[in-house]
Write a structure and sequence with these properties.
CATH topology of the largest domain: ph1033 like fold
Protein name: AAA+ ATPase domain-containing protein
Pfam families: AAA_5
GO molecular function: ATP binding; ATP hydrolysis activity
Number of domains: 5
Radius of gyration: 35 Å
Helix content: 25-40%
Structural class: alpha+beta
Organism: Niastella caeni
CATH architecture of the largest domain: Roll
Oligomer: single chain
Domain AAA+ ATPase: 277-572
CATH class of the largest domain: Alpha Beta
Amino acid sequence: MAEIISRLALNGKVKHIYFDFQGPRQQGSDKLWFAIFNKEQETQSTGLQLFVDFHKGKVKYGIYRHADASFVKGSGEMLPGNFNFAEMLKMFEESKHLILEDEPVKNKLLTIPLNQKSLYKISHGAFKSKGNESILDIFKENQWIVIHENTGNGQAESFKNDLTEGDYVYITIGGDELFSIAKVKAGSWGYVPEDITGKNGWIYREVEYIKSAINTDPFPLKSFKEFIYPSGNSTFTEITVDKIEEANKNIFEPYFGVEFISEEASIIKSQGELHKHPNNIILVGPPGTGKTYNSIDKAVEIVTGIKKKDHDDNKVVFDKLKKEGQIEFVTFHQNYSYEDFMVGIRPDIENESLRFRSYKGIFYEIAKKARENYFASLNEQSKERSFQEVFADVLKPLTEKGEPVKIKMASGIYYTITDITDYTIYFNKPSGDSRHTLSIQTLEEIVDGLREFTTGLGPYYNPLAELIRSKKKEANNNKAEPKKNYVLIIDEINRANISKVFGELITLLEEDKRIGAKNELRITLPNGEKEFGVPPNLYLVGTMNTADKSIALIDIALRRRFEFIGYFPDYSKLEESDGIFLKHINKEIFTRKKTADYLIGHAYFMAGLDSYKTIKNKIIPLLMEYFSGKTEVVEEIFKNSTWDIKYDIEKYDWIIQSAN
């Protein structure tokens, strides 16, 4: 092996591992192998190897990838008589660049698919004292995991019988040190020689180290007492599929840089987790197919994580969440603008002279709420109280009892707030001068650190801002803020000029550009606010009518950033006669239009009107719009349907009669 490294000029560039016929502790083996791999790789298991294997009288060599147990390059098995050292060296020389280029990606999670294998925790806590360091060193040298055969609760039996080749374990030294993730090798269990441990009854299994801990100190996990954690009161325990996501989040990702992937765990996660929905979706379909109706159900499902079929129940929850600010609803129209949606200015109608005040739109406000919740939950902190909430508390004596509110200034004297409106604070100066004003919007910007006032009205703004700022930090309940989802429903999203309304948000909406994502982006807004980003817990649910001519305004930029969910007529929701009639006219529409964009939805027959009125007041006007007022085309559509519908050219009106 040393000669191969030297001849290939790999000295100082690679690491190697050698396993001979003696086996661990000279107990014998029928296999000899060695691997040479990039020195930046943690073990041979994490990267490519120059691999040579002698096993049961046959030889294999090549460029080997442990992750999927495959040869990238190399020969099959051969007998020793056919083995040619020079040919092997030549192949290694031609391929050594693969090893040299095989450096691990820094800060990237190592993903390990379980592929129907099991995952366990094994604790060597019995050997955690300093006097047992030499014993642990032997375990590490031989790549053993150990347990005493008298370990209760079935743990020893499970270690001997349930642990099979290909299973994974994470090794912890009690609750004090994390060591490594390992993969179980083939072979049965055996007894650890008594001269190693000083007592009999210890049994071992051979493993292969996959990934050492990147943070060995599990102190932050001390409060977790479940068996899967280092401090859990267990020696050997399985991490079942329902616990894999939790273990990934709390143990494997932060302490090992690893995530385990399990198909069963993914199913459980998709059924119970709040974050499996796409961040940006549009419910799209022809009119009357229930897009707006279903947007309510979808929003409630995203926020609560619970999918209920009963729309009436969802509507009750929707109204509650909307009142609490977790869901907002807006309908786009032709005059809707970026200033309405994000930030802009509006006239200050309360001021005698013409001036403008800044305005923050519906998207800005809900993004702010979602962002505050995201960071509070991320840092396991209580969420700060909102400006509006604290401002209302400070002025409660004035608003509820009519009592003026005194604010202490830096000089130690007080000014008095005497009145407020939606936008303005009226106050008297300490000298008694009355009817001076402060802008509530400006006050909020000072509280949020977006503006400063050091002169002029600064002595009045700043003490009030400091009072509000201090009260904002008073937690509502001193409990860590749980992560919540927020939803903005945009009805008729294609009715506005999308590029104009969304502006730079088109980029920020992408999932990988959101706060905390790999390609996170933040921008400076037109009003000067810096570092604005869109959090991952904000979801957009749009609705789009495919029959609307405004659909042409939905450009590629928007389509690429949204997932589209189609809604089409559902005849099963209707009475049989209405379902047959609607299916007939939709078939005729499709024949003429060659697209499903202009079909008519079932909701038209679910509005509480009788069928006659629905046809006369809703279906016929819509068909006349579809076919440019051509009565003969609309008449032809109704032909052979369950209704006899004709246009009277003398009365210039439609005659509608049941065909039955």
